[in-house]
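Input:
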Amino acid sequence: MTLVLEGVRKSFGGVEVLHGIDLEARAGEVVALAGANGAGKSTLINILSGALPRDAGRIVLDGEELALRSPREAQHLGIRTVHQELSLVPDLTVAENVLLGALPARGGFVSWRRAERRARELLERAGFGAIDPRAIAGDLSVARQQMVEIAKALASEPRILILDEPSAVLAGDDLERLFALIADLRAHGVLVLYVSHRLEEVMRIADRVTVLKDGRLVFDAPPAQTSEGEIVRHMAGRRLDEVYPERGRRPGEVLLAAEGVSREGVFEDVSLEVRAGEVVGLFGLVGSGRSELAECLFGAAPISGGRITMEGEPLRLRSPRDAIHAGIALVTEDRKRTGLVLDLSVRDNASLATMGAISHATFIDRRAQTRRVDAAIDDLDVRPRDIERPVWQLSGGNQQKVVLTKWLLARPRVLILDEPTRGVDVASRVDLYRLVDDMTRTEGVGVLMISSDLTEVLGLSDRVLVMHEGAIVADIPGAEATEESVLAHAIGVAA
Amino acid sequence: MSASAVPAETPGGPRRWLTADRGRLINLGFFVAFVALIVVASTTTDAFLTENNATNLLRQSVTTGLLALGMLVVILTGGIDLSVGSIVALTGVMAAGLSADMPIALAMAVAIGVGVVCGAVNGVLIARFRLAPFVVTLAALTTIRGLTYVYSEVPITPTNASFLALGSDRVGFVPVATIIMLVAFAIVWVFLTRTTVGRAIVAIGGNEAAVRLAGISVRRHVILAYVISGFCAGLAGVILASRVGIAQPSVGVAFELNAIAACVIGGARLSGGKGSVIGTLGGVALLTLIDNLLTLYDVQSYWQQVLKGLIIAAVVLARRQEEGR
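Output:
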């Protein structure tokens, strides 16, 4: 069996994220796919598993071109994917989940005994015999749920098995058992595509390591012929563009500080400082705890230890309202889910956090509102310049500018940006960078920018903090930080 | 920048514009259908275009109208209030019962206050304890109906004739109750479009997380929405008892469904964040008109129900495309 990808391309909203992927893999091979966040790994996997249609290119299995219009079609061809997001039905038993859609039945009646036996076999084969097929899936730990997912994928005897960052939830012995399973599958002629940014494991189990960088496959070699350092270099890739403003800011006194802050089960003993007029970049891979840290600094989630101060004064953040009161603003990671009310107008969204300031006895002063919002969106160059337009009609970049407008109108002293440029076009990015630069220089706002876009972190930050598995592992002056050094810290391979 | 330049930079823009136009088209369609109904009715039956019938129409719209108005505020937050029919019954019998011992205005005010309390309890259970609105107000529907019968098993006929004034007085051919309802619609319209609290309520239904992160108390606003619904239901109950002249503990069964139907016909989205005061008023007018016409044409009441159901289904079907994104 041979799987061949030729020139596979994919765009979202006019932005191409996969620029023609060529890849060839054979039965009985373990191919690792590495790459930083946003490199296009997930998109590629989703195309292979039928969850996303490709825009161009061919996918050929044993000489036959595949359409891959739906996950169902992919599964019929023997392509199974274990996604990072779990897709179990939480209220059903493990056995039902493993055999979902293929429960053994006689005359329409499910044979529970056979179902449990078959589920147990599959779990044992996968090395997870400790899981009771009769347990309710939702009661299991995330790691065990992941194992059930893997058993579920095995149920249909796949020819191609895609594992998307399994080590994000599996660790220790569980991970070892998964590696044993992968070796077993390889011996039985299954092609395994293993997606991970953890190089150590990639080097161990893969026959070939490929690296995806900015939507291109930039590297492909057997582990024996390469090194972790070389792979990291390929993951990091290109140099800084000229889209970033010059540095040379002069940070003032400390505004926001976290002192030994913990959040149960997510991160522990995190300390950081954001000074007036400073841009602090916080880099970390997905799952490192960066967004959760932002939530705590904004009062959207409680802390279990440590303290947060503003100009040395301890803050008690019970809700975002307290944080806003203290002069903190948070632009969240997912503007559609937590940033915008999509049906409402630019006017409503932009003034959502400052309605009190433009109202008298709860009656909104429409004229003041119009003046403020209109001036702000003009300043940020939101297009079209129409404050009555519902925000769902705006492009991603302009939506993000509306979110920013909302917080700029609150005149924060510390602005936390969580993935501010995700899904934002280049022109809007430049506007955002200019704005951040402006705020720090003219108003002395302190900015904490969380981003998984390494070039952006390096291009904009006066200091770069690196988060790895719930801890801040590095604090590097912006001028000295390099893609290699930051990425190495983030992956946990720094010397 | 001209509007036509927008879709180019908005993924899927042109289609969205079509759906937006479609929404406008549907609203226009309703208006046309409404006018057509009136024209057909006034040309085919002599009974329709009489002052008497007009007064009746306006009067009949009050209960559904007030209930739909409160319901709209709740629906905008993404909730539902199934208890309004029972509140109508409880506040009606209480107003009638209390009017024997105290001034009529005070009796009515107390009864409406009871409606407010019912709404507040609903709101607290939903917002404070994060229970599902459907379940909480379903429980309230039963509880309040039961309390109504506990208060009085039999219909109460107020002895003082001025109890009937609120429901039966008119200015010209327009009932005072209708004027009250229209004023309530105007107030809620201003509330929802011009006040910080109103905008917050609309925004909560659209994206609760974004509202909370903007430093706004979601809990307080949700409670307020149910309080408003309770107030409207109380007002409707008092007016209804006053109009009929007898307060029946059995009145108001399934009124909540008419109210929800009026909101939905008016373009409200049951998951919240979208709905219109003017559309809801249109929905109320349409439902009342249909009832009136079917009665004038002597359609058997069971068939009236069937027809009304089909009309509601058709309207929702027509609006379905708006939700397509």
